[in-house]
Hints:
The chain is about 40% helix and about 30% strand. By secondary structure, it is of the alpha+beta class.
Amino acid sequence: MFIAVYEFEIKEGTEASFREAWLEVTKVIYQHCGSFGSRLHLSDKPNVLVGYAQWPSREQWEKDHKLTGLLYENAREEMRNCLVQSRTVYKLEVSDDYLQTTLASEYEQKITTK
Length: 114
């Protein structure tokens, strides 16, 4: 599994617009490019957001994905309009994985009530 970590420095007052556009772009990438989706995080730095995108492989991430469509193009343009700068901070291969989608206490409760 491959992970790309992005840093987005956005213009003051554009967070809501950026987040909305980011979501639309991410949906299209997920639906048409073979990614596992992405998460966007607020950082401890003003006007800096961090994105985490998960892919089955680096090769899938590196493919030349020809994306079109008015919704996608408008959302990409809106993201660009909000940006001061963006960069890929890390390109990571997963070595070990124990990320869970439920809390341990919730998991234990499911097991004991069955």
